[in-house]
Amino acid sequence: MTATASRQRKAIITCAVTGSIHTPSMSPHLPLTPDEIAADAIAAAEAGAAILHLHARDPKDGRPTPDPAVFMGFLPRIKQSTDAVVNITTGGGQGMSVADRLAAPVRASPEMCSLNMGSMNFGLYPMLARYKEFKHDWERAHLENSRDFIFRNTFKDIEEILKTLGEGHGTRFEFECYDVGHLYSLAHFLDRKLVKPPLFVQTIFGILGGIGAHAEDLQHMKRTADRLFGEDYRWSVLAAGARQMPLVTTAAIQGGNVRVGLEDSLWLGPGELAKSNADQVAKIARILRELGIGIATPAEAREMLALKGGDKVAF
Question: CA 247, CA 251: separation in Å to the nearest integer?
Answer without folding.
Answer: 6
